[in-house]
Amino acid sequence: MERQHWPTRLWLVRHGQSQGNVARDQAHRAGNLIIDLDWRDVDVPLSELGHRQAEATGRWLAALPEDQRPEVLLSSPYVRARQTAEAIRTAGGLSGSAKSVILDERLREREFGVFDGLTTIGIREKYPDEAAHRAKMGKFYHRPPGGESWADVILRLRSALNSINLQYENSRVMIVCHQVVVLCLRYILEELTEAQILDIDRQAEILNCGICAYDFSIDHKGLCVPELALWNHGAPLEEEGAEKTSAPDAMAGSR
User: Fold this and answer.
1) Exposure of 88 by Cβ count < 10 A (0-12 exposed, 13-18 middle, 19+ buried)?
2) Distance between CA 120 and CA 123 in Å, rounded?
3) 102 with 163: CB under 8 angstroms?
């Protein structure tokens, strides 16, 4: 018998450009040690461009037939992700049966610990021993004091996917989250290795509002298998004329 325990389609969308992305770029260009932001990372909002990117994505989804649009919209509780999800919903990007945005803290950004609010130069200057340890361990397994490694993020995402399987089987589900979260979800869904996911990460930054999508089919054993249908898709932004951006999330927090 066929065993289906997945959504019919799973969308992964990175949030739009945030003010943290902008501040991080400015800090790196200036050679600063600290990113000039006074918000906690959880409270960093979208930039003006980020709002336009999110709205464009929502309108692109709204142009799909209703039976292809997301029926469930899950989001990281971080402000930039919530604003992106709400913009998608407001623009009509969901099917008529969809409810309000559902927040799930397991989808939050990776926690940076003592590295929060620092540029790469700042980390090397303020925490040289920890920076050397990170270089040796690699970012997949290195956990900054008070923060998370990629492996830590993957642990909570496995739990989130189990909940999705239980609650939203045979539904079209969209997750709005963060760059590392998208990559870690791809690691889980495709059963990748550390080397494989880091190679994907090196190839290109994930676009702000870049879309990833998985469809699911039954294999010869009767098990449901995810198939990558879209990766880092920026067409919605191109069609709407909104500028595409892909800066890594800033390690933004109060200084």
Assistant:
1) buried
2) 5
3) no
Q: Residue 227 forms beta bridges with which residues?
A: 215
Q: What's the rounded Cα separation, in Å, for the pair 59 and 177?
A: 19
- Dmax over CA atoms of the chain, in Å, equals 60
Question: What whole-number distance in Å separates Cα of residue 68 and Cα of residue 94?
Answer: 9
Q: Which of 208, 215, 210 is nearest to 173 (CA)?
A: 215
Number of alpha carbons in the 13 Å side-chain half-sphere of residue 143: 9
pLDDT at 107 > cutoff 90: yes
Which positions are annotated as active-site residues?
15, 109
Closest CA to 60 of 210, 190, 198, 229: 210
Would you say the C-alpha torsion 209, 249, 157, 97 has a positive or negative sign? negative
Closest by CA to 60, choosing from 72, 50, 48, 52, is 52
Backbone angles phi, psi at 16, to 5 degrees: -70, 170
- Residue whose pair of structure tokens reads 């004091």 in the numeric block: 145
Give the pair of three-digit tokens for residue 92: 């009509």
| Beta-bridge partners for 18 | 46
pLDDT in tens, 42-95: 999 999 999 999 999 999 999 999 999 999 999 999 999 999 999 999 999 999
Q: Annotate 170-192 with b (16+ C-beta within 10 A) or e (fewer).
A: ebbbbbbbbbbbbbbbbbebeeb
Structure confidence by residue, pLDDT tens digits, 141-197: 999 999 999 999 999 999 999 999 999 998 999 999 999 999 999 999 999 999 999
